[in-house]
């Protein structure tokens, strides 16, 4: 993943990465209680959902071989479809 790269995340969702991936020492506990060590952290990714644009941060995980048909890089971040109370 490189800076200024646009990624399609579905029919009505896309993201624009505007900066480089930063190293991170974070450990994430997954729902099955296993742990994951992110490959890196990307700040201020612009995510477009329909006509709206949300700035968000993402941790990048490199999934193991055999998890899917090919080794896939997955991006996880805070939910960008949840708005604070009072926002409409």
Task: Note down, in words, how this protein is organized.
The protein is an all-beta fold and 88 residues long. It has one domain. The chain is built from no helices and 7 strands. The protein has strands at residues 5-8, 13-17, 28-29, 35-36, 40-49, 52-62, 73-77. A 5-stranded antiparallel sheet has the order 1-2-5-6-7, with no helix packed on it. A hairpin with a 4-residue loop joins strand 1 and strand 2. It is globular. It starts with a strand and ends in an 11-residue tail after the last strand. InterPro entries: Peptidase_aspartic_dom_sf.
Question: Keywords for this structure?
Answer:
88 residues, 5-stranded antiparallel sheet, two-stranded antiparallel sheet, 44% strand
Which strand-content bin applies to the residues?
35-45%
Gyration radius from CA atoms, angstroms: 14 Å
Low-confidence stretches: 79-83
Shape designation: globular
Share of helix among residues? under 10%
Structural class: mainly beta
Question: Count of DSSP helices?
Answer: 0
**What's the overall average pLDDT, rounded?**
68
Number of domains: 1
Q: Helix-strand pattern, N to C?
A: EEEEEEE
Widest sheet: strand ordering? 1-2-5-6-7
Distance between the termini: 33 Å
Number of strands: 7
Main pleated sheet: 5 strands, antiparallel
